[in-house]
Amino acid sequence: MNQRSAFKSLTIGTLVFWLIVFELFPIAMIVLVSFSTANSSTLYTYHFSLDAYRQLFNPIYIHVLLRSVKTASITTVFCLLIGYPFAYILSRSKLRWKNLLFLFVIIPFWTSSLIRTYAMIAILKSKGIINSVLLHWGVIDHPLQVLFSNTAVIIGLVYNLLPFMIIPLYSNLEKLDYKLIEAAQDLGSNTWRTFFKIIIPMTKAGIIAGCILVFLPAMTIFYIPEILGGAKSLLMGNLIQDQFLFALNWPLGAASCVVLIVILLLTLGIFWRASRSNHRGALL
Amino acid sequence: MKQLCKFSFSTLVYTFLYAPIIVLILYSFNNAKYTLNWQGFTLRWYQLLLHDNQLLRTVGHSFILASLATLIALGIGTLAAVSAYRYRYRGQTLIYTLIIILILAPDIMIGIGLLLFYNINHISLGFISLLLAHITFCIPFVMLTLNSRLQTLDYSVFEAAKDLGASEWTLLKKIALPLLSPALISAALLCFTLSFDDVIISYFVSGPSFQILPLKIYAMMRAGVAPEINALSTLLLIFTFIIVTTATLLQKRP
User: Fold this and answer.
1) For the segment B215-234, what is each residue's pLDDT rounded down to a tens digit?
2) Chains A, B: CB contacts under 8 A, how many?
3) Smallest CA–CA distance from A12 into chain B, residue
4) CA distances from B20 to A38, A148, B46, B241 (A)
5) Quick check: B86 pLDDT over 50?
6) What's the pLDDT score for residue A283?
7) For B24-45, how does the pLDDT look when each residue is reduced to its tens digit (9 = 90+)?
8) What is the phi/psi pair of residue A279, to 5°?
């Protein structure tokens, strides 16, 4: 009995300790610093103030925030539109091929995302691969100016984040009981009705998990706008990076981070409700 | 017709996912330094890479960091996952929530949080700060991977062993670990690649004393990526490909 409880408290205790020290405490620090005052010599002094939030309502920051939300929303919609049918096809493919096809979605992860994003320049630039092909086929007369624009940033984001949408959707669709679909069809439900009334509600947790995994990183992966975007495509992530590393206004950076925490908690609430209505552990 | 539609759609998605990788492999053989246009075949960049000690050192650092982070995260995560499977305890939902948050939180949030944490505790930025950060973001993936495998196991095996007088450690060593080995391998691979490629979290918690590959690449990017990096990525891709294929072949899927 004694040995069992020792094992239990040691193993769970280590995990709890780790999560509290390296997750809860750091997140609490972000909130704390966001309410402190900027100080040029010690970075911040804890003296309660709303200064950082006042600065956040500066039109420039509001503009960046809105642009980030817009970019992230477009990215999420595209990932969902591509990822959902793709995950569905994958989950319905022959058992023999399934694991292999899924593995092929993961393989791109094995090379640095920085390098892959950089390689996209060669594809998107005005004398790049896409333009050469389109010009050659006579689809366009002039090269498309995609690189260093918002469009390029969105393409880069969709590219980098698509697997994060596909994985939770795939694991949800895999567990889907296809007898229900057959039952619905036997009872005379057409394809669209089956899709919206049965498949979508049953994979809701996967959809939400995928959207969170795409939306927040889309606002914050600072190197993608840096590599593919122009001067006007900087997003929240670039703003936070700048406040912490260069402008050294830590409270403002922390306050921008709090905005992300709030978005995360809101979406988490929705996810929680959705995953309770079907099964837990919908993430992987 | 429907089949054709499905086929062309998936082909398009795969093309999208692989196009940049093919480009980077091609350019690792491109005989030009500052342009992305094709100038002929060369192995120059591979030769240069083998003599670039500074770059190879950062690769070594990344290897050490990723291996240690994987090992420790695997240790903490496996013990906790097995324990959580065997026993009920208070605060189970809270721990589950913390793990989900850790997965869903954008990297920048974890990076900034840890930066502030290290700053207030006067932990200098370098190897230790990176290691602690990497262990932290690996743990939830170990937990989730093992958890989904544990759910498929037959609990009565554990009860039988316990009735026959097996101690906790025997149980772990002789039953849990062998049954979990395929999941342990996938978790280890996942952690290693996550750690090896992490840019954003590492960016905030690293210092000049311990340079790692992704940040080195990030720093080089401002001047344009040297073709050496393409060569290095190609080699790393082949390396991981061999490891993962062997691992997949070794573990028989249930």
Assistant:
1) 998 988 877 777 888 888 89
2) 228
3) B80
4) 42, 17, 19, 17
5) yes
6) 44
7) 888 888 887 766 677 788 888 8
8) -90, 155
Backbone dihedral region for residue A249 (phi beyond 0: left; psi -120 to 50: alpha; all else: beta): beta
Residue A258 to chain B, least CA–CA distance (Å): 9
> Higher-confidence residue: B55 or A178?
B55
* A4 at B interface, C-beta within 8 A: yes
The third-level CATH classification (topology) of the domain covering B52-250 is: MetI-like fold (1.10.3720)
**What structural domains and CATH numbers belong to chain A?**
56-277 (1.10.3720.10)
Given an 8 Å threshold on Cβ–Cβ distance, is B217 in contact with A111?
no
| Rounded Cα distance, B163 and B154, in Å | 15
pLDDT band of residue A205 (cuts 50, 70, 90) is confident
Among residues B57, B54, B45, B68, the alpha carbon closest in space to that of B235 is found at: B45
Q: What is each CA distance from B145 to A98, B167, B203, in whole angstroms?
A: 18, 25, 27
Rounded CA separation A106/A69 (Å): 27
Lowest-pLDDT range of A2-6, A161-165, A183-187, B18-22: A2-6
CB proximity under 8 Å: A 102-121 to B: 103-105, 107-121
A48 touches chain B (CB under 8 A): no
Which residues between 196 and 235 in chain A have a beta carbon less than 8 angstroms from any beta carbon of chain B? 209, 212-213, 216-217, 219-223, 226-227
* Cβ-Cβ contacts under 8 Å, B203 against chain A: 241
Judging contacts by C-beta atoms under 8 Å, the chain B residues touching residue A250 are: 116
**Minimal CA separation from A83 to chain B, in Å:** 9
For B40, counting Cβ atoms within 10 Å of its Cβ (0-12 exposed, 13-18 middle, 19+ buried), the class is exposed
Contact status, residue A147 vs residue A169, Cβ threshold 8 Å: no
Shortest distance, CA B157 to any CA of chain A (angstroms): 17
Nearest by CB: A118 against B84, B136, B221: B221
Phi, psi of A128 (to 5 degrees): -85, -170
For residue A3, give the DSSP letter. Answer: H
**Cα nearest neighbour of B165 on chain A:** A1
- Closest partner CB to A281 (pick from B16, B133, B147): B147
Reported ipTM: the value is 0.90
Which amino acid belongs to residue A133? V
Cβ pair B103:A283 closer than 8 A: yes
Task: Give the tens place of pLDDT for each residue, A131-161.
Answer: 888 888 888 888 888 888 889 999 999 999 9
